[in-house]
Design brief:
Blueprint: H1 6-16, E1 22-24, E2 31-38, H2 42-45, H3 47-53, E3 59-62, E4 70-71, E5 74-75, H4 79-87, E6 91-94, H5 107-125, E7 132-134, H6 142-149, E8 154-160, E9 166-168, E10 172-176, H7 184-197, E11 200-205, H8 219-231, E12 235-236, H9 239-248
Parallel strand pairs: 2-3, 2-11, 2-12, 3-6, 7-8, 8-10, 10-11
Antiparallel strand pairs: 1-9, 4-5
């Protein structure tokens, strides 16, 4: 959940303009996805019931090394949480195993790390294929875009925006639900944009609690985003299911 360094931010800005896996969206009506990175246990224990109230299914991007751990005052998911989430119809995505800045790691090491995460998830869920990826810390470069785009159907970043028209599946845009920069009007505007453009709007956050980290959300923030999407008549689907509509509808 750490902030990007200046060098990483500059690199990421440059990378935004280098498309790697472009497709033209086939959406005939907008779609939304809710995603959780890392993921803290509260994203399930607190976030799960909120999703259920709205009839929504989310994508939980799991980094294997966090399983059963507590770091910086945050309790992360357990193996039981992972199986419960999958059993409830949510998607498990890949966030690498070790959760490092990818631009500073060799391609071979990144390959091994995502393979380790797949093995970890399979040890708990059986024959479960991780098809959706999110860049740890939102850190991305042309090299890592090419690498992960060849291994996953989608790779989600943290660049703000709605995915419409030509969509780069190697760096999907998203809207942060983060306590440090909470702006409900901006969420509402993004949902309106998605509705008008038949776009794919993706939200991301981390923990969900009454006293969240700067990168997490309160229950009210998550509920606000979900309510706004529902009021706009937009379906809420996990990343892999939303992709099916974007690519094949």
């Amino acid at each position: 959940m750490a902030r990007l360094s200046l060098l990483h931010r500059v690199n990421n800005v440059l990378t935004r303009n280098i498309p790697v896996k472009l497709i033209r969206s086939r959406l005939e009506r907008p779609v939304a996805s809710i995603t959780f990175d890392d993921f803290p246990q509260s994203a399930w224990s607190v976030g799960g019931p909120i999703l259920e109230r709205h009839g929504a299914r989310a994508t939980y991007y799991a980094a294997g090394r966090f399983c059963g751990r507590s770091e910086d005052g945050i309790d992360y998911y357990t193996s039981k949480d992972l199986t419960a989430i999958q059993g409830a119809g949510h998607e498990i995505g890949c966030h690498t195993f070790s959760h490092q800045y990818g631009t500073g790691v060799s391609s071979k090491a990144l390959d091994e790390d995502v393979a380790r995460n797949q093995t970890f998830v399979a040890s708990l869920l059986g024959d479960y294929r991780l098809s959706s990826f999110a860049y740890p810390y939102g850190d991305v470069s042309p090299r890592t875009k090419r690498l992960f785009s060849s291994r996953f159907a989608t790779s989600r970043g943290i660049r703000r925006g709605v995915n419409a028209g030509l969509v780069d599946l190697a760096q999907l845009k998203a809207i942060g639900l983060e306590h440090q920069a909470w702006n409900p009007a901006a969420v509402e505007a993004a949902v309106t944009q998605a509705a008008r453009s038949n776009g794919w709007i993706i939200f991301f956050t981390h923990d969900v609690s009454d006293d969240p980290s700067p990168f997490g959300a309160t229950p009210e923030m998550l509920d606000h985003a979900l309510s706004t999407v529902r009021k706009a008549g937009i379906d809420i689907l996990p990343i892999k299911h939303a992709l099916a509509r974007v690519a094949f509808q």
